Amino acid sequence: MQLPFNRAQPEIMHIDLNSCFATVEQQARPLLRNRPVGITNRKTTFSCIIAASYEAKAFGVKVGMRSDEALRLAPGMVIVETDPPKYHYVYQKLMAIMRSYSPDVTMKSIDEGVIDFHGTRQHLNARPLADIGMEIKQRLKDDVGCWMKCNIGIAPNRFLAKQAASLHKPDGLDIINHANLRSTLFGLSLTDLSGIAERNQARLNAAGIYTPLQFLDASSETLHRLVFHSVCGDDWYQKLRGWEVDNHESQVRSVGRQYVLEDSHLSQEAVNARLAYLCESTGVRLRSKDLCARGILVYARYSSGDYWYNRKMFKTTFYSNAEIYRRAILVFNRRPVDSEVKEIGVTCYGLEPSLNNQMSLLDEVNKERWLSNTIDSINQQYGEFTLTFASSFSSRSIVKQKIPFGGTQYLALLSHS
Amino acid sequence: MEDVITLNQDVMIVAYYFKDKDQPKCFPKRMEYEGKQVVFTETGLRHPTHKGQRMVHVFDMTDGSADYRLEFDAMSLIWKLVYIADASYAAAI
Questions:
Q1: Using CB atoms, which residue from B42, B49, B89 is nearest to A78?
Q2: What's the domain count of chain B?
Q3: Which of helix, strand or coil describes residue A399?
Q4: ipTM of the complex as predicted
């Protein structure tokens, strides 16, 4: 395959909120501004930093670092616990701003999204996208707050637009097109490219590719046969040249939750209570998507570093909290019990559309459905986990709502507290 | 770690209501708390959230020396002081 560079006008805009959660916390609490701030899901010594402010990053604090390590690097750092409804509000504001320019908006995660301007330029009086980008930055400040900043990248495809958005952090605006593609890639290393981490870098190095420009100049056959050994090579060949390959939507294949136990010396009963809570939370997510599952996977990570998982596929589908828990505990009880559990997780897979609107011939099935629907209605009316398992009641104040990083499919559930 | 004092107490608030670019806005100006008066100087962020089907407006405010979180229950019209994040940690830096 031989493709030239895409010479079309750049019409894809990638918007990325800078250090999103930390910036939102600094926006909400003015006294945190210009200070190193780290965001964690739980305020414990071993919890990891899921977002760090630019001031914290200047001390060397990185996302994924443990809180105690981060505090050693930045002794005055303020650790703040996540506040999902706040981030959901900012996400909604950002989405509303983006949708006012084009109907083709894809939110890639809670803090980044893509606007496709194809076919909309006439309605925007053919304004340059750089102008629109500056306007979006200002609207974000007007609608959310003066501390909010975002990076904007404009390019002919999603990959290059994301790359452009990462060139000048924070608060940058960059355009990549066929004219400046080579000069832009010249200043970068392979791992600066979105999607290239250590393993892909090693693959490229093994084929004699050490720089993004060599990557760009490599043939489609080399990337397919020598580097990636799959169609991924062809995708990379196209997207480096500005052709679109990432405009597909992924389907939900599994639904689950995991939790790092607050104490590794918890009793068996307490661990089961945390698992019950995770099952309820998984059930809410499953039913919010009108899905039911056939398979369940449960895992445990031990203090010793060992990892155990087991899964089971069932003949019948399930969706209610009680059924998820019953099946999860069946699998969980098979684990080795010679070491202390540090982390647990439950995942439902083998997903199918729910048959909730069709009555069953079996009375038992209908009763379970009515009970599940009634519990969900009460929880919607009076707040989540108002009606809950007695066994998981103790976990309610301990296990916190988490931020779904990878996708935006459960963000609607964050607006409730 | 920061110094957050969780209170969840009902408080008296004097608030301004006005329009800014045709958008209705609310600014809680003064709070009476334990016999003291706190005068807010800035709203950090105002965001709505749901508690069940009740709409609660969360205001993150500051008076310049501490950050305060207030909640206004749109159904019962009650203001609640959720926490005070004291600025004393700032002095330690």
A1: B89
A2: 1
A3: coil
A4: 0.87
